[in-house]
Specification:
The complex is a heterodimer of chains A (195) and B (188). Chain A folds into 2 domains: 1-27; 32-190, Lipocalin, CATH 2.40.128. Chain A is mainly beta. The longest helix of chain A is centred in the first third of the chain and has 22 residues, at 3-24. The radius of gyration of chain A is 20 Å and the shape is elongated. Chain A has helices at 3-24, 88-94, and strands at residues 33-34, 40-47, 50-56, 59-64, 74-80, 84-85, 107-119, 122-131, 134-147, 150-160, 177-190. In chain A, strands 1, 2, 3, 4, 5, 6, 7, 8, 9, 10 and 11 form an 11-stranded antiparallel sheet that branches. The longest helix of chain B has 35 residues, at 141-175. The two termini of chain B are 15 Å apart. In chain B, strands 1-2 form a two-stranded antiparallel sheet. Chain B has a single domain (15-184), classed as Up-down Bundle (Fumarate Reductase Cytochrome B subunit). The radius of gyration of chain B is 19 Å and the shape is elongated. The chains are: A mainly beta (195), B mainly alpha (188). The interface between A and B is medium-sized, with 16 and 18 residues.
């Protein structure tokens, strides 16, 4: 590679970084990372009135979040549905076609479309939640706390499992498994700018 | 003249005791057969419904049995008629008391084991889908399986005693023709 080409490439890269990274983006997506080991995604499903606590063991996030500039921030979140952990009987069942159908739809995704600051570290994250090939608009209230360089986002929302065809056929009977599923999350992020 | 199988000198149980006896008889037999059926069913919404009905019935049986025991302590069962006391062999009197005491023991043991099994399995009981009951023990898969065995054994034990109890009642009614069964039947 000639010296000229090298320097041109370097200049190009520098210009691109200036435009896309430091220049235009409020937050540096590449700098932000989810600390999965400290984070959790849990849910409560009701079976004939009995609350059953479950969680997802594997999930990831791509965030470009600046609390000072929520309108230009973006959050993408992915949950590995096969990592569901409720109890041994349920876990074997939930991956089947009537439920998550993980062979065909291994992941649930959330992509933010608009983030609003409500003050006091509270945000309203609107976006699209897609599970099992069904997408629904969703607004999630999020509480952000920052300490020691880490940002912790917590929140919860209810989803209707039948909106996403989770539990088909005989299992769509909501007197057995309630339609409402409460989802809770705690996401610990590194590299989010200070509030 | 007395009707066959009727004995006017027999002292009856109280009406409350009779109601509790017959309601619990139906409830226990139903819960037993639902329990047996559910055990062989593959997972389905119907199975989950039956399991929960079985649990609700079991807790109801436990509660009614507490009431029944308290009632029994406050209103002692009538003594066996003198004629029966005199003719019945000693071993039968012993068996009569032992069967009743063991049945009462199992009225509590069987539902409590079922409750503990549910807790150990990680499914809290919500009575009739409304009232959450406390867990009797922490979740533990291995212990859950052992408790399930015990629950089943105790239930079979109870059903065995019930069969013996029914056989004895029928024997008194149709062989001895002493009208003992009218102690547990409302009437004039």
């Amino acid at each position: 590679m000639s010296l000229l080409l090298k320097s041109r490439l370097l200049a190009g890269a520098a210009a691109w970084m200036l435009l896309s990274g430091a220049g235009l983006c409020p937050a540096h997506a590449a700098d932000q990372a989810l600390l999965a080991a400290q984070s959790e995604v849990t849910f409560v499903a009701k079976q004939l009135g009995v609350p059953l606590d479950g969680k997802f063991k594997t999930f990831s996030a791509q965030t470009a979040f600046d609390p000072k500039s929520p309108q230009t921030s973006k959050i993408a979140f992915t949950v590995d549905l096969g990592s569901v952990a409720l109890n041994a009987d349920a876990d074997a069942e939930l991956v089947k076609p009537d439920w998550f159908n993980t062979p065909r739809f291994p992941k649930a995704t959330f992509q933010s479309t608009a983030i609003k600051a409500l003050g006091g570290g509270r945000f309203e994250v609107a976006g699209k939640l897609a599970i099992k090939g069904n997408a629904r608009d969703l607004v999630v209230p999020v509480q952000l706390k920052q300490a020691g360089g880490l940002s912790t986002a917590t929140g919860s929302f209810a989803l209707k499992r039948l909106d996403f065809k989770i539990g088909e056929g005989d299992w769509s009977d909501t007197s057995v498994v309630a339609n409402d599923v409460q989802v809770k999350f705690k996401l610990v992020l590194q590299g989010v700018p200070a509030m | 003249m007395q009707k066959s199988g009727q004995n006017p000198s027999i002292q009856r149980y109280t009406l409350t005791a009779m109601v509790l006896h017959w309601v619990l008889a139906v409830a226990i037999l139903t819960a037993f057969f639902v329990g047996l059926t559910v055990d062989d069913m593959p997972l389905s919404p119907a199975k989950l419904k039956l399991i929960n009905w079985h649990k609700w019935a079991g807790i109801s049986i436990l509660l009614l049995s507490v009431l029944r025991l308290l009632w029994r302590l406050a209103h002692r069962p009538p003594a066996l008629p003198g004629s029966i006391q005199q003719t019945m062999p000693g071993w039968q009197t012993k068996a009569y008391h032992a069967t009743h005491h063991l049945m009462y023991l199992l009225f509590f043991v069987v539902p409590l084991l079922g409750w503990a099994y549910s807790s150990a399995k990680g499914y809290p009981i919500v009575w009739f889908g409304v009232l959450p009951l406390p867990d009797l023990m922490p979740v533990n898969k291995e212990i859950a399986e052992s408790i399930k065995e015990l629950h089943g054994l105790a239930a079979w034990g109870l059903i065995g005693l019930v069969a013996l109890h029914v056989a004895a009642a029928l024997k008194h009614q149709f062989i001895d023709k002493d009208g003992l069964i009218s102690r547990m039947l409302p009437g004039r």
